[in-house]
Each structure stands twice: as C-alpha cells, then as structure tokens.
Amino acid sequence: xxxxxxxxxxxVLIGGKRPARRGGALAFRASGSGTHAHDSANPAQLxxxxxxxxxxxxxxxxxxxxxxxxxxxxxxxxNLVSSPGSGKTTLLVKxxxxxxxALPLAxxxxxxQTENDAARIRAAGAPAIQINTGRGxxxxxxxxxxxxxxxxxxxxxxxxxxxxxxxxxPASFDLGEAHxxxxxxxxxxEDKPLKYPDMFRAADLMLLNKCDLLPYLEFDAGLAVExxxxxxxxxxxxxxxxxxxxxxxxWLEWIRAGCRxxxxxxxxxxxx
Length: 272
Ligand SMILES: Nc1nc2c(ncn2[C@@H]2O[C@H](COP(=O)(O)OP(=O)(O)OP(=O)(O)O)[C@@H](O)[C@H]2O)c(=O)[nH]1
Ligand SMILES: [Mg+2]
Description:
Layout: H1 2-5, E1 13-14, H2 43-72, E2 76-82, H3 88-99, E3 105-111, H4 116-123, E4 128-132, H5 141-151, E5 158-162, E6 179-185, H6 192-195, H7 197-202, E7 205-209, H8 221-231, E8 236-239, H9 248-271
Parallel strand pairs: 2-5, 2-6, 3-4, 3-5, 6-7, 7-8
Antiparallel strand pairs: 1-4
The chain binds guanosine-5'-triphosphate and magnesium ion (MG).
Guanosine-5'-triphosphate binds at residues 82, 84-90, 111, 117, 165, 209-210, 212-213, 241-243.
C-alpha cells in the first residue's frame, strides 16, 4: 500500500501552511477496486486492506462535500492527471492566456515539492494555490477542501486542479471534480493506456499533447487513441499542442460547454 510508495505522508503543505486537521493519512484504493492486489489471507494484509477501504471511504465523504459546494456555486472543476512532464502546467498557462479573463478561474497545483507551478500560473494572471504533498504521490479530497477555503472561489467559475504527476494513484482519488482529464504526451509511448488502465478508465477526456512533435517521433497517435478506447470506449480525445496551439479551440469549447452546464445545473437546483 502507500507505505511502499510514500503516500500517506503527513508533511503536507497547502499554500505554504500545514493543514489544520487531517483525520489520518489517505491511502490507495482497496484491492477489490483494482489498483493494488492484497489478496493474501495474512491477517496483517487483511488489516491493511480494511484500513485502505476506510481511508478511501473517508476520501469519498470529503469529495462528496466538495462536489456539493462546487455545484452550489456553479463551479466547473477539472482534475488534470498525467505522468510528470506531460505538459499540464504549460497547457494551463496557455488556457489562461486564451481565455483572457473571459471566464473567472482559479488553479490548485499539486506537487510533492516546490511552488514552481503555482508561480507559473500566477504569472499568467490567475489565482493559484500550491499543495505540496511531501512524500505523497496524489492529491486527496480533504486537501482540495482546504485549498478551496483559501482560494475564495468565484460563483460560476472554472476550477482547474493539476494533480501530482503520476499515472497510478490519482486515479483512485475522487476530489469532487466534474471530470478527470488525462494528458498523454506523444513522447511517452502509445502503450500507456494499456499499462495504466485505471487512469484512462477514470478519465472522461484525454488530451493527446505535444502533437507538434509528431513529425520527429515514432509515435502512432492513432494507435495510442485505439489503446485508450480499448480500456475506455467512452473516452473523448482531443489532439492538442500547448506549443503550436493545435486543438486549443476544441479544448476551450469543451471547457466553456462544461461551465455552461454547471451554471444551468446550479440554477435548476435553486428553482427546485
Ligand atoms: N514540444 C512541446 N513541448 C511541450 C508542450 N507542452 C509542454 N511542453 C514542454 O514539456 C515540458 C514539461 O511541461 P510542464 O508543463 O512543466 O509539464 P507538467 O505536466 O506540468 O509537469 P509536472 O508538473 O512536473 O508533472 C516543458 O519543457 C514544456 O515546455 C507541447 O505541446 N509541445
Ligand atoms: Mg506541472
């Protein structure tokens, strides 16, 4: 479980501050749900599985609360997940530039260490808060709850969450987002959806990034998409390049449509 990869770390910082309360560190999903197998009848192993189940149930409670808060405020929240260096922050910066203030937005950045990504987002003109997970390799819903309190989110806005670069653990943790968006860059190899299926199954949209590099690589974009659809036939795909701007219009329209839906749902709730 997380003890083997450093999840469950208590050295978390949210906006540079230690969180006020953490009701136990969060861990991986239980064996039954796919990420790690703990099938042994060994009592110690069974205890670990039970602890993992409890922790994930606790995460789901916080995620539910986040989702209710976001829905009540008409906020469209996205959880960007990928391996390190796929281009998440670059894409966010380009998205902020392209929206040019037309849509109120805020960003939550997740990394084990450094404020680098939050600084890049602030330099692009958007409010951002950095979560440092220490040895932890994913964001959890309680971290997001606390970060949202510090961010002072605007009604009918967009919340972009950049998860820690990791194609495994963030798949198991619901943060209360509307969608997970998985970014796969063309330098990573076509087979990532087959090797890390949980992540591609958990996502609703895949951004195939760095497409400007395709002429220089032996990367079969069609095959990557085929593999992604093999694990998740409903996965939407946008081929994009944060560098050249290819696919940005489609991505921005996807965001705008989601924001419109969030506002309409909020209004419908108020009428009922
Ligand atoms: N050619 C090309 N390079 C890109 C593109 N998007 C990002 N990059 C480069 O990829 C590298 C990593 O980009 P980041 O935006 O920091 O990636 P990230 O996913 O945020 O990385 P972590 O937060 O560390 O996981 C940088 O050198 C970017 O300039 C793209 O569309 N095309
Ligand atoms: Mg980043």
